[in-house]
Write a structure and sequence with these properties.
This protein folds into three domains: about 270 residues, FAD/NAD(P)-binding domain (3-Layer(bba) Sandwich), CATH 3.50.50.60; about 150 residues, FAD/NAD(P)-binding domain (3-Layer(bba) Sandwich); about 160 residues, no CATH class. A hairpin with a 2-residue loop joins strand 4 and strand 5. It has about 650 residues and is an alpha/beta fold. The site of flavin-adenine dinucleotide has 36 residues, from helix 2, strand 2, helix 7 and helix 18.
Length: about 650
């Protein structure tokens, strides 16, 4: 009796060790590539009983994904300096490049391009796509023998959970795929709005953000027949600059430097007649300062520290505005004062501040009072900085134009001074450094329900607005386009109302006597992820089956802490699914990042590593515990505690 049972057991064990574990990575943008790199890196360090097949699936371009696809026009630029970008956690170690060890984006770019612009250069997005594909090639060429990668360029249209497996169906009709584990890193959502816009009559065309992402970032242009038309752009963020470039540079226009150093726009005649752009605040994103920060200089928070955040979080869900914002504001203003006061006076200021009684309630009044005694009136108010026209009204469009141009010029002057030197730019740069700290306070239940919603809808967007600015080049181009009369910015509270019959009317309640007739309206912003309405079929089928649910009604997919298993509608944790990046935005904060900071074991890589470690846990006889993860192999001088997170 016992022998047949033992035979059966040994057969099952053999089959278990022979059958490969199958993992589907849905989406091969930077997140997906990072997970694949980590799977290979972790497997290379382990001896496993089973092999692993990884299906790298992307509907647009396997290896880089749709945002970074390689055939897009060169004027679509990254917003991250090339020196701040890698996909390998360690530098080359003398042996072959492979998972774990390879060149940074900057090193790679320098090697392949005679026009490499230097460490602060902003690469065309398509070039970063080529680097991402190079990374996947390097990883695949040097895979550990028990791992195999299969590339699938197709759209996943359905996912069915069946008998312990996930069955994936594809748009092309190819055979369905059965896998043991899913990693969903599908990026920005898709929206049904596309079909609505397609149905619009040509005279009242409304191109939605879906169209912009799907067509414009897919290397295609916006419709070619926009010349002579009036275009409305809703949004003044990063996508606004993309669309603006497409409507000008993309149509043969040129920016030239005049003798006075100013930039002028030369029309090609193929651009629209008029571009009218607006947003709620009426103010374009502040620019990123010139890169004058000494190389290798780190940043250690003084007020908004990890310890303080951990202490507050240990008390249970908090209110961001009352518990955290004072410390964050103090951190920003401390940097502002450091650059405003002469070094010896700043030293005295710091000593006086340290001698005061600082608590959450008193830190900002105390800092203001001490700053006042050093002759500094009025500290930086982040919410006011993000809405400089709040409460203002303008008698004419000319008056508003003068006001906005004057503010943009001031911003350009600050940016030219440099993000290390100029007090305001140095202060706003702090917001970039402390993003990981903010996440520690906010992510996955750090705040009360009310505060989480306020953070996601107001405070978070304000911080992002002030700290994700485009390059100086884009600001100079913006001024040139206004100067040329091609671009008109609307005042605060811009609206684009559909006209009876055809077209739209653009105006701002804060600007009297101005409205513009618009032929085509473009939503120049990326849509916020929302699992409840996302029409991406992969997300939709998981959500409709109850396997995904929204976190606190925010639209972000509710996941556990690392390795990010979704929590089902019934509250069950799905430990063979991971959801990473953008789809979880709003449950976590500011996941719009597609790079690893060289020399730092940052959150981006740690997120991917956590998934890789969990995924191969069952394949490895004795798996290292979480504390040992990466300790030997992480980059020399890098710490596994994320201390920088730049994009
Ligand atoms: C215009 C723009 C510019 C940006 N610039 C920068 C920058 O300079 N630096 C930076 O750090 N971040 C930037 N970002 C932020 C961006 O979110 C990240 O860089 C990064 O692309 C996120 O990576 P991801 O892998 O999560 O998502 P994505 O890069 O969006 O990749 C997701 C992939 O999933 C695929 N996919 C989705 N659904 C399916 C399906 N059903 N079947 C098959 N495949 C599917 C998509 O085709 C896509 O390729 C930018 C974002 C935008 C919108």
């Amino acid at each position: 009796m016992i022998q047949p049972m033992l035979n059966k057991l040994s057969e099952a064990t053999d089959r278990w060790s022979v059958m490969p574990e199958r993992i589907a990575i849905i989406g091969t943008g930077p997140r997906g590539i990072s997970v694949i790199e980590r799977l290979a890196g972790r497997l290379a360090e382990s001896s496993t009983l089973r092999s692993l097949v990884v299906y790298a699936i992307d509907s647009v371009e396997v290896g880089c994904g749709r945002l970074w696809r390689t055939d897009q026009p060169d004027w679509l630029l990254m917003n991250t300096r090339c020196k701040n970008v890698t996909m390998f956690p360690n530098p080359p170690d003398g042996a072959a490049w492979r998972a774990g060890y390879g060149p940074t984006f900057m090193e790679w770019w320098r090697q392949i391009d005679v026009n490499y612009p230097g460490p602060s250069g902003l690469a065309p997005r398509g070039l970063y796509g080529k680097y991402l594909k190079f990374v996947l090639d390097v990883v695949e060429l040097n895979l550990p023998e028990q791992m195999h990668i299969e590339r699938v360029r197709d759209r996943v249209t359905d996912i069915d959970e069946h008998a312990g497996e996930y069955v994936l169906t594809f748009e092309s009709g190819r055979d369905s795929l059965r896998v043991d584990r899913l990693v969903v890193c599908s990026g920005y959502p898709l929206s049904k709005a596309k079909s609505a816009s397609q149905e619009s009559t040509p005279s009242s065309r409304h191109l939605t953000c879906f169209d912009v992402l799907e067509t414009f970032q897919s290397g295609l242009s916006l419709p070619a027949d926009l010349s002579g038309q009036a275009i409305g752009l809703r949004g003044l963020g990063l996508s606004f600059y993309d669309v603006l470039s497409e409507l000008t540079l993309g149509r043969g226009g040129r920016f030239v430097h005049g003798d006075d150093g100013d930039v002028r726009y030369l029309r090609s005649g193929r651009e629209p007649r008029l571009i009218v752009a607006g947003s709620r605040s009426g103010f374009p994103l502040p620019m990123r300062g010139r890169d004058d920060r000494p190389a290798g200089l780190g940043f250690a928070p003084r007020f908004f520290t990890e310890t303080r955040i951990a202490d507050i979080r240990a008390e249970g869900p908090a209110c961001f505005r009352t518990s955290y914002l004072p410390w964050l504001t103090a951190e920003v203003n401390f940097a502002y004062l450091e650059k405003t006061l002469a070094p010896d006076r700043f030293d005295s200021f710091r000593k006086q501040l340290d001698a005061g009684d600082a608590s959450t309630a008193t830190i900002m009044p105390l800092m203001s009072e001490v700053a006042h005694s050093f002759g500094v009136e009025g500290l930086l108010d982040l919410e006011a900085m993000a809405a400089p026209f709040r409460g203002m009204s303008f008698p004419t469009q000319d008056a508003f134009r003068r006001a906005v141009v004057s503010l943009v010029r001031q911003d350009v002057a600050r940016s030219e001074a440099g993000e290390f030197t100029d007090p305001v730019k140095a202060a706003l740069n702090v917001l970039r450094f402390i993003r990981p700290h903010i996440r520690k306070a906010v992510d996955l239940g750090g705040l009360t329900h009310t505060s989480h919603h306020e953070f996601i809808t107001r405070i978070g967007p304000t911080i992002a607005f002030l700290s994700t600015g485009p390059s100086l080049t884009r600001a100079r181009q913006l001024l040139a386009l206004i100067e040329s009369g091609l671009l008109e910015l609307l005042g605060p509270g811009a609206s684009f109302r559909a006209k009876d019959g055809a077209g739209f009317v653009a105006s701002s309640d804060a600007v009297e006597n101005y409205s513009a007739d618009i032929d085509v309206l473009i939503d120049a912003y990326v849509p916020a992820p929302n699992v409840d309405v996302d029409d991406n079929p992969a997300i939709r089928s998981l959500a409709d089956a109850g396997l995904l649910r929204s976190f606190m009604g925010t639209g972000g997919v509710q996941v556990t802490a690392k390795p990010f298993h979704p929590v089902t509608r019934d509250g069950e944790v799905k430990d063979r699914i991971h959801v990473l990046g953008i789809p979880t935005e709003a449950a976590r904060w500011f996941l719009h990042v597609g790079v690893i900071e060289p020399g730092v074991w940052d959150e981006f890589i740690d997120d991917a590593d956590a998934i890789a470690t969990a995924a191969i846990e069952k394949l490895v006889p004795s798996n290292p515990g979480p504390d040992e993860r990466g300790s030997e192999k992480s980059r020399e001088g890098a710490t596994r505690t994320p201390n920088k997170y730049l994009s």
